[in-house]
Design brief:
With 488 residues, this protein is of the alpha/beta class. The protein has 2 domains: 32-57 and 404-486, Immunoglobulin-like; 64-322, TIM Barrel (Alpha-Beta Barrel). Helix content is 30%, strand content 26%. The chain contains 11 helices and 23 strands. It has helices at 3-30, 73-76, 82-90, 136-148, 185-201, 233-249, 267-278, 281-286, 299-310, 334-349, 385-394; strands at 36-39, 45-61, 64-68, 100-104, 124-126, 129-130, 152-156, 206-210, 255-256, 259-261, 290-292, 318-320, 355-363, 370-374, 381-382, 402-408, 414-419, 425-432, 438-443, 450-455, 460-467, 473-475, 479-486. Strands 3, 4, 7, 8, 9, 10, 11, 12, 13, 14 and 15 form an 11-stranded mixed β-sheet that branches. Helix 5 crosses helix 6 (233-249) and helix 10 packs parallel to helix 11.
């Protein structure tokens, strides 16, 4: 047989068989086990990943989502457009339906801060004498948030009043160490509970009182630019115990919220301190949750902390009480929105937090720290995608809902699922951080059609369509999508 004949046989018979086999192998590699593909009108195949819910596996019960009124409310609370700003945050029709508001109990002057917005007012006129009009704007903002749907108010203090501090300033000690002398702890506890009682008498639904904020940091006079106070672990217990005893003495329906540790993976202030608090007879009765901030905390850190707390019998629920991205420059787009959404997802699914609270509700700064940005000179405001991404959770996950088990075949899609207390509403939140569309189908839901809400470059947590049984949905690139089945 000549070489020409052999070549003809190869081209005509052998190579087509090899190519066909290779094409089949390529198709099988494109479609992982358990995933389906579907052709569109042009015959182009779309890979569909399954999202599977299991409502028989139940995790934490959600209390809600919120943000703080620190600093900004002292000014913006007196603006003519404060109602409009707060509607975006606390109204569940036009806005994102937050239900938790953190009111800052200001420590007052003197304070060495670099910005007037960070110089807080105290309602104390003199020891034991108070005038709520001294913080009228901030209290007005809080009351409007309550009118719009905030059913949980947390009162928190960054520092004792300046008159009780060692340095004489509410912005920290000269050396960054403790700034509250032990002999003033009881007076500070009385101050905090006095104000708590005043707020309750105003009809404010105060549920928690937080006497300490990020105690592990070395707050130094004039260096931090804001109120702050360092506490050693033993003083956290000592002061908190006095606050709890004062609340109990007055029979106030308020629990304390501690320790407001600045990050999850802190052995001294987050992990070891919990056990010490629960060994204290007074505090163990006064603490019904453990409050921590998500700053400087990655996924690995959170898994370590979750594993630690899972080993503790009768562990109280975890609250994530403060977070922002801590990055320079405003970002109104999806970069910052996706970072926020991932943080919320991790805290809900890894740490099983029952509440999640953003740091500043409103910011005037060139920083990634606000759900709403304002211009102090014009009093105009802008809403970043970050707020809407939080709304993909807060607007649809009702208080009393429980997180349930959910699995996604595409591990790059971050998915969490929740069912309402009455079992009449199921919510699935899916984050697609990829630069491409991703098609998904959902199983484990009986109520149809499913309404779909999207936050992306083109949408602001708004309805973009419905999905019926046996249908799939294409997640937009770099998006946060909420699927709501049952009661709307």
């Amino acid at each position: 047989m000549t070489s020409m004949t052999i070549r003809n046989i190869l081209y005509r018979f052998v190579l087509p068989v090899i190519c066909a086999a290779s094409f089949c192998l390529l198709i099988s590699c494109r479609e992982p086990a358990g995933e389906k593909s579907k052709s569109d009108d042009r015959g182009v195949e779309t890979l569909i990943s399954q999202i599977e819910l299991n409502s028989d596996v139940v995790y934490q019960t959600i209390e809600g989502f919120g943000a703080s009124g620190c600093w900004w409310a002292q000014d913006v609370g007196g603006w003519e457009n404060i109602d409009g700003i707060l509607k975006w945050l606390y109204d569940d029709e036009v806005g994102i339906g937050l239900n938790i508001y953190r009111y800052n109990i200001g420590a007052g002057e003197p304070s060495k801060t670099w910005d007037e917005w960070r110089s807080t007012q105290t309602v104390e006129v003199s020891p034991g004498v108070y005038d709520l009009d001294r913080d009228r704007n901030a209290i007005t903002a809080m009351k409007k948030a309550v009118e719009l749907g905030a059913d949980t108010v947390i009162l928190f203090a960054n520092s004792p009043p300046a008159r009780l501090t060692i340095s004489g300033y509410s912005s920290g000690a000269e050396d960054g160490g403790p700034n509250l002398p032990p002999e003033n702890e009881q007076e500070f506890a009385k101050y905090l509970v006095d104000i708590t009682e005043l707020m309750l008498n105003e009809g404010i639904p105060v549920k928690y009182l937080s006497p300490i904020n990020e105690p592990q940091w070395n707050w130094k006079t004039g260096e931090n630019g804001q109120e702050g106070c360092h506490y050693k672990p033993e003083q956290v217990i000592s002061l908190s115990g006095k606050v709890a005893a004062e609340l109990e003495k007055r029979s106030l329906p308020v629990k304390i919220s501690i320790p407001e540790s600045g990050k999850w993976l802190d052995k001294e202030y987050t992990l070891d301190l919990y056990k010490k608090v629960m060994e204290d007879k007074i505090l163990s009765k006064a603490v019904d949750h453990w409050a921590v901030h998500s700053y400087w905390s990655n996924e690995v850190d959170k898994k370590i902390v979750a594993s630690y707390f899972e080993g503790i019998q009768n562990m109280v629920p975890l609250h994530q009480t403060e977070w922002c991205e801590m990055a320079e420059g405003r970002d109104l787009g999806m970069d910052a929105a996706l970072i926020l959404a991932r943080t919320v997802h991790e805290d809900l699914t890894i740490l099983s937090v029952v509440s999640w609270q953003h740091w500043l509700a409103v910011s005037c700064y060139d920083y990634r720290d606000g759900l709403v940005y304002v211009d102090k000179s014009t009093r105009e405001y802008r809403i970043p995608k970050r707020m809407w991404a939080l709304g993909n959770y807060s607007k649809f996950i009702d208080s009393g809902s429980s997180r349930i088990s959910v699995q996604s075949e595409d591990e790059d899609i971050l998915v969490s699922a929740f069912i309402s207390e009455q079992k009449d509403k199921t919510v699935v939140v899916a984050i697609n951080p990829a630069d491409m569309k991703k098609a998904v189908s959902i199983s484990g839901i009986d109520a149809y059609p499913i309404t779909v809400y999207e936050t992306s470059d083109n949408h602001d947590c708004e309805p973009v369509g419905t999905m019926d049984k046996n249908e799939h949905w294409e997640l937009s690139p770099r998006s946060v999508t909420t699927f709501v089945a049952g009661r709307q």
